[in-house]
Amino acid sequence: MADPDLTTLRLLVLVGELGSLSRAAAALGVAQPSASKRLAAAERALGVVLVERGSRGSALTPAGTVLAERARRALTEVEGLVEAARALRAERDAELAVAASMTVAEHLAPGWVGGLRRARPDLRVGLRVTNSESVCALVRAGEVALGFVEAPGPLPGLSSRRVAVDRLVLVVPPGHPWTRRTTPLPPAELAATPLVVRERGSGTRDTLDRLLPRACPPALELGSSAAVLGAVVAGAGPAVLSALAVAADLAAGRLAAVPVDLDLRRALRAVWPSGRRLVGPAAELLALALRDAGA
Fold first, then answer.
1. What is the extent of the structural domain holding 25?
2. pLDDT tens, 115-137?
3. pLDDT recorded at residue 187
4. How far apart are CA 185 and CA 190, in angstroms?
5. 143 and 285 both lie in a single domain
6. Is residue 1 in some structural domain?
7. Taking the alpha carbons of 72, 76, 81, 87 in that order, is the dihedral positive or negative?
8. CB contact at 8 A, 196 and 173
9. Chain-centre distance for alpha carbon 4
């Protein structure tokens, strides 16, 4: 029999985190019958029972708990391998190396890079996608010429320019009690509620931590906005994410927005090493971003 694949490993980890096979399947975007078959196949291949299924949900067995922790570590190693491969490709193929946080990379940077490529069709651009903390580290190390981040607060060793204003949105599944509120949610109630959040180092998480410094521990911490959205849809808890990231789910009715009595705007910034003047393609890319921002 075939060894468990990466999707099955992720499914096993999520069952342990969410306590439900259906929620884990929804978070991964796979059908529940398919998820159940994957776990059953993994149990046959490994020779151990991984999940106890009951009327109140699913829970990992002791063996499943041990293997889920090993799966979590294996997935982290695989992600590191993929990121290293991406970095090597970028260094090999790119004349302009750029890094961007996930929100910027998914929703804004493609338009900027596309404009640059139209002006300079022979230019090869390598875009590395990671969280804001890692983007800043890559810029400081000289591994990329320009970065785009959503991180609040000072950025030591870096010059910056605002290229866009983003807004965070509190989202819940349709039918959540907060959707029946007639007034904005007080910050204290939001801070007292376990949320589904991004990992530390992401600009979205850093912004939320600054807005709610006394927030209770999160319900779940995940490494991408897509994973957070899937967990919210599955009922794991509310989340605060970029309006850019949640627009499609709000329009489709998969999520509902809840007004909050907080200023949830934040600046998205371009960053480069302090004391260095941008020239060539990096300067042209920044100019395109500033033009789109009306700056």
1. 6-78
2. 999 988 888 898 999 999 999 99
3. 95
4. 7
5. yes
6. no
7. positive
8. no
9. 25
